[in-house]
Design goal:
alpha+beta; five-stranded mixed beta sheet; homodimer; D-tyrosyl-trna(Tyr) Deacylase, Chain: A; globular; 169 residues; 3 helices
Chain lengths: 169, 169
């Protein structure tokens, strides 16, 4: 992970949740909206900035799933979401690359949309693979769900402490 | 607002919400838990770091309430929460000062707790004052609610797009 002095290539915001529900397909004339849901675990809001690479995604997955940001029961000891074990909800959030200019936000640091989508897909796939190969998450049947890149992220979150962290890569 | 290269003295995360509910007093043997609620508006997660001052709080309030991060109806045009007009929910969130060291988080940049509490109180007070003196929020009876510093922030958020932004000061 880069120091705060370096220019980040990607930004992740992590929040603890007890449950969360995210729209992955908006309603249409023919169909109702579609949602994914997770139980206790973490929400990963993610944004790729200029300079992001597939190699960085690997590091991001390892770090975000490995960092101890989840309170375990009964004593509140901090463990990783893999050790909790808990669910993961990944929310694409290009706005995290924003910087204020006066009263407006600018997103000049953000990666191009097609590249961002590829890295996002890779991040989601690698998180899911990690969950499938990690003994605790696999045995407890924990899952990785994710939002649709480029969509409006219609979201409901219930938490007993968001315990919000910003991770720059 | 400082550039990304400078070391921040405070960090704010802003999310849009349709509604939110925050515990401000945990349940006890005698009493049920107490909550505050807001409607459409923004959630401000806030953390003071070393070097924060009362002068900085003034700037933070002006910037956070003035920046155009709220989608207005019917056309989605971005306006400030004061112009929406919408509600504000302030959530103290010392974890925002965290930096990873291996798999653990460290909070060496965070301000001392007593100072942080003072600045937090000032931030909440100034936001409320701004709402009372701003024509649109006053006429629409919009309010500023806030969490209890140092408490566990038991929170439910409903949003049609969190539109998450990190503001460093």
């Amino acid at each position: 992970m880069s120091s705060s002095e370096a220019v980040p290539q990607a930004r992740v915001v992590v929040q603890q949740c007890l449950s969360a529900r995210l729209q992955v397909k908006p309603p249409s004339q023919e169909n109702e909206a579609e949602y994914v849901e997770v139980g206790r675990g973490i929400i990963i809001y993610i944004c790729f900035l200029k300079g992001s690479t597939e190699d960085l995604v690997e590091k991001m997955v390892r770090s975000t799933l490995g960092v101890r940001l989840s309170e375990s029961e009964p004593n509140g000891k901090l463990v990783s979401v893999l050790d909790l074990p808990g669910d993961v909800l990944i929310v694409p959030q290009a706005t995290l690359g924003g910087k204020t200019k006066g009263k407006a936000m600018q997103y000049h640091s953000n990666i191009a949309k097609t590249e961002g989508q590829e890295l996002y897909t890779k991040f989601c796939t690698m998180c899911a693979e990690t969950f499938e190969t990690s003994t605790k998450t696999k045995e407890a049947n924990k899952t990785v769900k994710h939002g649709t890149y480029g969509n409006r992220q219609v979201l409901t979150v219930v938490t007993n402490g968001p315990y919000t962290h910003v991770l720059d890569f």
